[in-house]
Amino acid sequence: xxxxxxxxxxLSGFLLLVLMPWTSSFSLEGSLSSYAKFQAWxxxxxxxxxxxFQTSIPSALLMYTDDRVYRDYFxxxxxxxxxxxxxxxxxxxxxxxxxxxxxxxxxxKVSISRQGRTVTLSVDQLSVSQELYxxxxxxxxxxxxxxxxxxxxxxxxxxQSELTLQHVIYQPFFNGDIRNVLYSNCGAMLIRPExxxxxxxxxxxxxxxxxxxxNGGVCITMDTETKCDCxxxxxEGEFCETETQKSEATFFGSEYIFYxxxxxxxxxxxxxxxxxxxxxxxxxxxxxxxxxxEKSDYISIALRSGTIMAIVNLGGGETKVDxxxxxxxxxxxxxxxxxxxxxxxxxxxxxxxxxxxxxVDGIHSTERSMVGTFTMLDSKVLYVxxxxxxxxxxxGIIVTNYFKGCMKKVIxxxxxxxxxxxxxxxxxxxxxxxxxxxxxxxxxxxxxxxPITFTTPESFIPLPRWEVRKEGSSLSFTFQTSEDKGxxxxxxxxGNSDFFAFEIFDxxxxxxxxxxxxxxxxxxxKKINDKMPHHVTLKHFATRKSGSFSLDNxxxxxxxxxxxxxxxLDGELYVGGFGTTNEGIPKDLWAGTLGYGYVGCMQDLxxxxxxxxxxxxxxxxxxxxxxDRCKVETWVKxxxxxxxxxxxxxxxxxxxxxxxxxxxxxxxxxxxxxxxLNFDGGQYMKVAFPEESVTEVEDISLRFRTxxxxxxxxxxxxxxxxxxxLLYLDRGKLKLEISISNQxxxxxxxxxxxxxxxxxxxxxxxxxxxLTLKIDDNYPSAVAFSSSYVKVMNIKLLLLGSPGPxxxxxxxxxxxxxxxxxxxxxxxxxxxxxxYLHQIPSFVGSMQQFYFxxxxxxQLAKTNSLPNLNITAQFNxxxxxxxxxxxxxxxxxxxxxxKLLARSQFSISFQFKTIELYGLLLYNGGQxxxxxxxxxxxxYLHVLFNMGGGPQRVVVNIQQRLNDNxxxxxxxxxxxxxxxxxxxxxxxxxxSDLTGSTKLHLDLTGYLYVGGVSKSMFNDIPYSSPYGxxxxxxxxxxxxxxxxxxxxxxxxxxxxxxxxxxxxxxCRADSCMNGGYCIEQWNSFQCDCKMTSYTxxxxxxxxxxxxxxxxxxxxxxxxxxxxxxxxxxxRLAFGFRTSSSQEKQVTLLRVExxxxxxxxxxxIINGSVFVSYNMGSQMSVPIGDHFTKVTDGNxxxxxxxxxxAAATLQVDSNDVIRKDxxxxxxxxxxxxxxxxxxxxxxxxxxxxxxIVGGNGKKPFFRGSISGLVFNGKRVIDLAxxxxxxxxKEGNVLLCPTTTRYDRKHEMQSTEGIRTTPHDGVTDDIIxxxxxxxxxxxCPEDDEDDCxxxxxxxNIISTTVKFTYKPTxxxxxxxxxxxxxxxxxxxxxxxxxxxxxxxxxxxxxSKSGQLNIEGSKPSTEYNPQRPANSSREQEVTQTPNLALIxxxxxxxxxxxxxxxxxxxxxxxxxxxxxxxxxxxxxxFLEKKQQQGNGALxxxxxxxxxxxxxxxxxxxxxx
Length: 1517
Hints:
By secondary structure, the chain is mainly β. 6% of the residues lie in helices and 41% in strands.
């Protein structure tokens, strides 16, 4: 017979199974297998789903449904007590969050609804909505899965591929109660859906008892029995009663686990797939986690700034994967699960793809893919927690500092090899080495004493008030600084005078405490601003009004005066400062009164025996200006002279400070013009404080300029007392009269008269009863009040320039006296009314830089930031003061200076204005890869540098573009090794943090280039600007040296002129010919001819040409092996003409990557031009012009552009044909099958070579190609000058142009400067313009950069010399390179750039050569001229009479020869002259009407006849 309990179990289970499909309420126990499965939901466009829940757990999966693997899903989760709904419909993603504290064990109703494109999530009375933007928003389209509530069946763990959102299986399952699950399908009435299946549901008669499962195990109700789920515990057994072997490991910051694969095998292991999985817990924001690999093969994982980052490299380049949620960090001292997988698949022969996916906590996931030739990962070693050689390795190392925290279940799988590293290490496996003292089988809480740095005086950390206990309270901390002023700690009672504080003043540590009836203030006589750590303790006994404070080993006892006994604090405890304002700060707190917060390090803060983690508090409160470590920088920051315009620099804690009070500038670097007030004798500025200032210290400074010997500068007055300060000029000297608490003093200073119309700065400081007065840089004068009780001064009113309304009119009648009555100053008696002020003349002149207790009063008045302001004085313009202004008129203009000294520190500043979006402002190269550059990119400032660890680019954080034709101030400072600060105008500086970099020295050599560089350097240096700066530059400052760029430059190139000249509009419709693009310049225009196949200043000159045939020939340009470019865009243009024997299908040009997987090819197919390209994807993209036949013997121009995946083709002037494969990419590949495929269409990786005339296979091109430009590379031009990277094979004849021009120039201007970027220009070099009046300097090594101006205003005479060189025979024919042919001339020598004419001579077997040599005048500017000498223009002397007669005679002879030649041409049949090829003579052909770009064909006359060859005479003019 069955026992009664068993019978009850069976009946209960039976009833649960029978009634469950129709039940409205059920409970889920939250195991890994619990769920409730309901019938599919059909939301259509207006459906809804709702249910109610109650739970006590903060995070869990509530509901999930998808469309079975495709792309659509709904996922509802409880995330830290709030609801989160993720929806994906038709590729449109939305995420909605609503509610909080929903895990309060109360019932909550949740509803999901659709209304067209709008999705709404509601809980209780709260709702949030968001719109979908996809094309097809129908959910499921008939493939809907069931709706799962609270979890999913466990079999999905092995069949994750059946889920659209695969990581949903790793969400924590729901533990709580569910009721009233209701659907509205397609807007129909509500129904209660049928429950199709379930597991882990607990009914009202559950067999689970409260204590059945031990140690956190979960009781699961089966059909007839119960079971304990121990999977989430460290226990096992029937009731989770047996403790399992733990694998937790605690790392303390200097330990690591090392596994050596070589110890087991004779060689390293190679894996096609990898899996890394572990749990970690830490409060450390950056730390080394995992590494395996060998040389260029590795997998590296690290925690960096609270986010997870991984790098995978199989030898073909790095793939970076990071998991960085915007609102979540992983350094929260909670356990986190990390899973990284790598899988590979072959695509084609020699081409494969690998996919890397990293998931944290089963929720946050990132996936990346890469295409390459490698699929295997080679590994020799494996590290967990740290790497002993991380600092030296560089490659693959994300962070170098060791991990500090706990890790467990660290498992690595390489294909089928599985290593449980944490368990092997804890068990002492012989193949695993443990370095350091790792604590196994437990996770210890590591008490951090993270030091922090307050980097600015404004930074502070607010904490709850310091609790003062009756039995006694204590606090302690350690600090370290070099600054002599700052509030370290401050806590007060709101609305009362109770407070305590620690502050630094004049280099001493002061302790101040007030219980409400009087303050105690004392210091320890020991300087503490010595950059050394100092430890402070405080013990206070509330019942005795006393205590003690100590600094290091020196202590002092104190007793607070007055009758009050309790220290009542209710405000926040400010650490590192006094809050956001010093209004109402106690008068005894001197550093706070003057506005100085603490700058320096602090750590080990303990309040009443409780350690405070200041770093964590700062992060949680997002406090600005808090650094996460403490480091003493020993170098002198002021050595680079970072303070501009004469500002005085002083050293601070890892910073410099600029005192601008003695200059006409303001700002952190004295970079901005200070506001100036002008007074005419009756004008004034009056400021009344809202609350009367009550202080024991004052810092006052004022800068003035006048020619009057007497005048009122400043007067203060009080509403509550007779306190007054009066500062004025009296007969050219400065006088100060002051009265505090009826104690008066008077001072007079000034050895010389101060009314000399020069600026003078007066400084007044008071420290209690001591007064100091100073003018300019003279020695200060000091005086002490006769009574030591004179400390507190009241100030209500500040008045500058003139009394204006009588001060007595400012206050009610009862306060009119102000006690200016009968005030004794020194030994004199003041008059008995306010008319005394009117006896002092009003000020006539200018004032600026008025500082009152660290507040810029005049500047605040200028911006209307002062209440109760009355001002009649006039402000001057704040226009920048410019020094040594120069204009760079051309993009090729630049100057050179001696190298910048910048190894560990430097300071650069200058002002500029321009209308150009692009341009190189500054460059200095260095040893090896070291360099620094400043450039404009798209109107924004970029700073680039390389210190040997790889190039870095910093984009300055500004909102507006800088090419607005306004002056802008740029400052680039490196005050120390680990930081570069970049500031534009008054914007907040952009900081480049070099912390952790292994190479920190910038070793520069050679010239410092300003405004640009030599044209030959643009392709070889790592900045992006295609040309130099065009505009004005002024006030240049390099490490405090202020060179005049025009007068002190070592060399000047092209158009650099003194002063600033404005821009002009010069482009017209006919400015550039043959489709050239006109670029507006500063004072001229420039023609971009790159996409025309022409060249010259106006795109009218024919470009270099190459003739292929009749036998095969190729020209190949090989990129330097160490600089193979990878580009997202390409530009190609060339002209060509085919021969009559050309095949129907032939390749004109092909560009290949290093592997050959990426390519771009131009072909002729059936008489039409076709282009195909492939960026490493599975198929090539074709684009062609079917309607234009190009095999007609005429000249045709082809233009090809590629931007990402899209490309265009234009033949001649026909319509542009466009192709963008991304529009049909999604139709070819699904997102899940080939994630990241679109990225592969965008980048042409590692361009390796350019092949012209074919593709290395038959058939070969026969014809001519001219003006070929690919991304700025003129391959045919390079071939003509025998560039070492160009190889010529087979039958190729090279032709220069007929016109003299620089072969390297792609663009030439009419004169010089302003450029606007446009498509096809920004990546290429923009070439020179004319020089300025200073002429052109051409060094021996830069001859290619010098060109004669096309349009110059200078009159320069030229010496012309005729020489006749008889030759007995023509030069021999080269065996490996053909002669240099031109399109419209008989012959040319590619070593001579002058025009050559050929004339047959029937009467002589000899030929002569006539040379005309033009010697250019010297226009070199020599800056090292004698002092006070004027700039010289060097020109050649005017030719003498005999030379002129010779020239005229020569011209006449040339004209006669030309007439004879023309006559002979007219008398012959149209055709060619047969010339002996052994003499390198070409054939003459009738000029075609095809245009300037057409090539001359080769026509034979009597080709097969033999006979005596006629001598030909050769003339060169």
